[in-house]
TrEMBL record:
This is Alanine racemase. SUPFAM superfamilies: Alanine racemase C-terminal domain-like, PLP-binding barrel. It catalyses: L-alanine = D-alanine. The active site is at K51, Y273. Catalyzes the interconversion of L-alanine and D-alanine. May also act on other amino acids. GO terms for molecular function: alanine racemase activity. Keywords: Isomerase, Pyridoxal phosphate. Substrate binds at M321.
Length: 383
């Protein structure tokens, strides 16, 4: 693997100079950092959230770095099978639970944990008892109201779940909540108080905390039995006011390209579709091969930070399908082939690019498209 800023081509292929670099060691570091936020003794166990192919990093690439996790959390049962196929033997939590009665046929591996979000799922389980009894987690609708039981329905669901456990249809029954505002300083107080009051006196383990809750509300997370971080494992900050570096996290993905063309434009000339950027003076514009078909956000505006030859500069005009334009004013020495960092290295966090584009880091990371080759840090590149 060449240094991050050196031109890179997958071996034996004539390729575009655009690639992502995934650093599994950074994931291992971030896992340790999350553990360190929790008490040294009696700490909750940790589900490493690896849905969306490990937030776009590739589960197969990062799994070796997650050996120290207590479990993996995925969206669908099919992904749980992928975890097994890749050699993961520990518990797997399935956030999406069952989408149809046929999904019960997929309950064929041990140590599955299913999130239960409505009563019909419990009926499906009762009618088609699985070969392997899954542990189940009842999800409270909480303050996010995406899926899960309302406060009114929760206790009835718990009684039914307990009856199924008594019949040996399911294993242990736990309690799961997911916060809408864990990234805010006072964002979980009310939500947690409501959830704790709801499950007061009910037996079973409790899980409430994603990355923002573990890092921002550690004392509360520490009173639960399982935490469920995702984003922070990949080195992005969940907070608007604190960067990943401040949190001691290392970016696990960086996106690199090159200047593949230089346009000298006159004052008043438009750059890109619709002339969304008009050159105020004569200027040098670098054309970078990376566009929205690669997963770079099309709605990133002029001014979105980009690093060219180690120097921070800015995007100009509209991002197009395969390319974008950047200001070479701060980098007059940049020539064709100059290295470009789009995010994740050279002091350019993915969350800063996301913020400039009006989105979040997780969308950029999960949105990297299949046509972008990925180089694994410390290993030979693969397409
Ligand atoms: C995605 C997800 C998580 C992980 O959230 P991050 O903000 O990425 O840490 C945790 N719990 C549930 C239910 C999720 O869907």
């Amino acid at each position: 693997m060449p240094p991050v800023n050196a031109p890179y081509r997958p071996e034996g292929l004539l390729a575009r100079p655009l690639y992502a670099r995934v650093d599994a060691a950074a994931v291992a570091h971030n896992l340790a950092r999350l553990r360190a936020a929790l008490p040294a003794t009696g700490a909750p166990r940790l589900w490493a959230t690896v849905k969306a192919d490990a937030y776009g990093h590739g589960l197969a690439r990062v799994l070796p770095a997650l050996r120290g996790a207590d479990g993996l959390a995925v969206l669908h049962l099919d992904e749980a099978r992928t975890c097994r196929r890749l050699g993961w033997k520990g518990p797997v939590l399935v956030y999406g639970g069952l989408y149809s009665p046929a999904d019960t046929l997929l309950l064929d591996t041990p140590q599955l944990h299913l999130v239960i979000t409505h009563l019909t799922q419990l009926h499906w389980l009762a009618q088609a008892p699985a070969a392997e009894r899954p542990a189940i987690w009842l999800r409270f609708a909480g303050d996010i109201h995406h899926t899960g039981f309302s406060a009114e329905d929760y206790h009835a669901a718990f009684e039914l779940a307990r009856a199924l456990a008594a019949r040996g249809v399911v294993g242990e029954v736990g309690h799961l909540n997911h916060y809408a505002r864990a990234d805010e300083a006072d964002g979980v107080d009310h939500a947690d108080a409501r959830f704790r009051a709801l499950i007061d006196g009910l037996p079973g383990p409790v899980s409430t905390s994603n990355s923002a809750a573990v890092l921002g509300h550690a004392a509360r997370a520490a009173t639960t039995q399982w935490v469920r971080p995702g984003l922070a494992l990949y080195g992005a900050s969940p907070f608007a006011d604190r960067g990943a570096a401040q949190l001691g996290l290392l970016p696990a993905m960086s996106l690199h390209s090159q200047v593949v063309g230089i346009q000298r434009v006159q004052a008043g000339a438009g750059v890109g579709y619709s002339g969304a950027f008009l050159a105020p003076t004569g200027m040098d514009v670098g054309i970078v091969t990376c566009g929205y078909a690669d997963g770079y956000p099309r709605h990133a505006p002029t001014g979105t930070p980009v690093v060219v030859a180690g120097v921070r500069t800015r995007l100009l005009g509209r991002v197009s399908m395969d390319m974008m334009a950047v200001d070479l004013g701060p980098v007059p020495h940049a020539a064709i082939g100059a290295p470009v960092t789009l995010w994740g290295a050279d002091g350019l966090p993915v969350e800063e690019v996301a913020m400039a584009a009006g989105t979040i880091a997780a969308q950029l990371l999960t949105g990297l498209s299949a046509r972008v080759p990925v180089a694994l840090a410390g290993a030979s590149p693969a397409r």
